[in-house]
Amino acid sequence: MRIDAAKFFSFSPTGTTQKVLEGIAQGLGWPEAERVDLTRPKAQAQGVCDSGVLTVIGAPVYAGRLPAEAVRRLRPLRGKGGPAVLFVVYGNRAYEDALLELSNLAVELGFFPIGAGAFIGEHSFSTPATPVAVGRPDAADLRLAREFGQAVAAKLAAAPGTAAMDPLIVPGNMPYRDGATTGGLAPETVADECERCGQCVTACPVGCVHLEDSGVVTDKAACIRCCACVKGCPTGARVMTDASIQAIATRLATNCKDRKAPEYFV
Ligand SMILES: Cc1cc2nc3c(=O)[nH]c(=O)nc-3n(C[C@H](O)[C@H](O)[C@H](O)COP(=O)(O)O)c2cc1C
Ligand code: SF4
Ligand code: SF4
User: How many whole angstroms from 157 Cα to the centroid of ligand 1?
Assistant: First the structure.
């Protein structure tokens, strides 16, 4: 089928979803397509994607679901029955219902899913003391991301239109699992190690970190626990000290050592 343009949407607080997206973009043969970064505070997907536009949407997995913030930012988008490529990136534990949720959301918004993938990224809670999927997506993951893009491009080239394609089946269950809890806790700042560079402020996708005369101030009620501020802090001053998150990180570092492989469905 004829594709006139491509448009890529992503929500990626710690950057792994964005890396996978670039691999898929290369494989699709649309390396220069328009990117819409939904990660910045107040970002929203807007407008209508015509049927000749190839839409790609990527988001991380939070508690086996899509981050509620990503769903909220995607909701204003509309498709006109055009093809959509959907992918999630998870931290080597499991993606559970997230890919199904994204596929169902795309249909609800008016798209026709033609390819879906689940890739692995370094876990947001990974630290040197509790490493989980460190360095992923790596070269092997990105090779598979390109391969996924190529498989989708071949599917598009072979069909006269989406009407000739079978509906895409992706793994997951309904009703979906409960989503991730937000608010109530957030990373802390070790004042002695903070250089007041403001990178945690810039990194926060919900704008809940502020630099004040007294130091870094965080609105814990708004925190989505994405750890972008932790990973973006150049001095290590920003740390997730909460005992419940540290316990999860310890469990993940113990139980999720075996390398999971990306999967895709075309
Ligand atoms: C609140 C929260 C919940 C998460 N839940 C899961 C999960 O259920 N399964 C999993 O494998 N990884 C989980 N992760 C890890 C992320 O999916 C993973 O690190 C992903 O690569 C982050 O994407 P990003 O770099 O685009 O932000 C979670 C991360 C956060 C912050
Ligand atoms: S990124 Fe780190 S060093 Fe910079 S202001 Fe935030 S906590 Fe301080
Ligand atoms: S304060 Fe919370 S929401 Fe903001 S970047 Fe840090 S972990 Fe993410």
Answer: 33
